[in-house]
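Bug #2210: token dump truncated for Tubulin/FtsZ GTPase?
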Amino acid sequence: MEKGKMLLVSLGQGAGNIVDGLLSRNPRYNGLFLNSSLFDIKPLKNADMSKNVYLYPGTDGSGRDRNKSKEMIKDNVNSIGTLLSKYPLTEVVVVFTTMAGGTGSGAVKTFIQIVKKVLPKAKVNVVAILPSLKEDELAFKNTIECWNDINSIMDLISDVKFVDNNKRNTYKEINNEVIESLDLAYNIIGIHADGSIDNKDSFRINTAEGSGLILKLYDGLKDVKTAIDLAIKNSVFVQPDVYYCDYLGINLKVDGYDPYEVSKLFEVYKSTYITYNNKNNIVVLGGCETPTESINLIKMALDEKNKRKLSRNKKRSVIIDIDTDGIDNKEDIDGLNNSELNDLFEDNYAF
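Reproduced locally. Full output below:
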């Protein structure tokens, strides 16, 4: 894909870190940062308030409230549309959002609708970040609502990739892996005597309708299947339920794995593209079915938390009996009852 015709848009804080990383990795991308908090924008190296930042006026974060975020973006539709109209040559808009928060999670549906209205010829891709199963009830609830929002407008979306936050120990590790993998996928092009992938081929692979997947193969494993299995295990992207795809892009190191053996491991309905390079082993699947296992796990985690909450009998006051055996009892002066309290107040206050 042509980087100058791509627009990477972050909705909210978590997404901003990834777009910032991609812009640092390759300055040819165009980037936009939408947020409700200036505090989230300040640490980003490539966010320029005068050029590529839209901060909702008069706001200071969403507090993980999706409804608040929905209201904010609806109040700013015209301004956001005007901002997007400054990128008329854009071929692909990649929208990044975390699903568990507020600002991005609540805005993603409306934002995509605005994009398709202002840039109707542009493809819209989505990179949505799922929470880990260690998160709280609100995170799970927001995620499921965001999932439903995205799926309700799937006809407006080309490629969607879901990131699995359970696959690394820290957010930084997740972000770094996502940044590297996406940049490799967007740069899957290559020219070789035995096969080439050009910008148009990359465009087809990366914007195929459905769920996308990126796999990085490690060197030196005993065979292709072992390499693919390990790549699937280590991938930070949510895996499809079945590995069927419309397009398969394979760009492997020269004199390494056999790309034709790789292609045999996937069911490809339209086209397979093969080329070679000297640095990386990258396999990109485009047009897979929407994965369901990870979101079902989140739904199960939410149900379990709700079940535990309903069974909870929260105690607010506990009276402790004092064992007074062998101790001289003194008269205990108790507090006032309601009648006594009313008698004391009736002369001083009118009710």
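Output looks complete on our side. The mean pLDDT is 91. Marking as cannot-reproduce; reopen if the truncation happens again.
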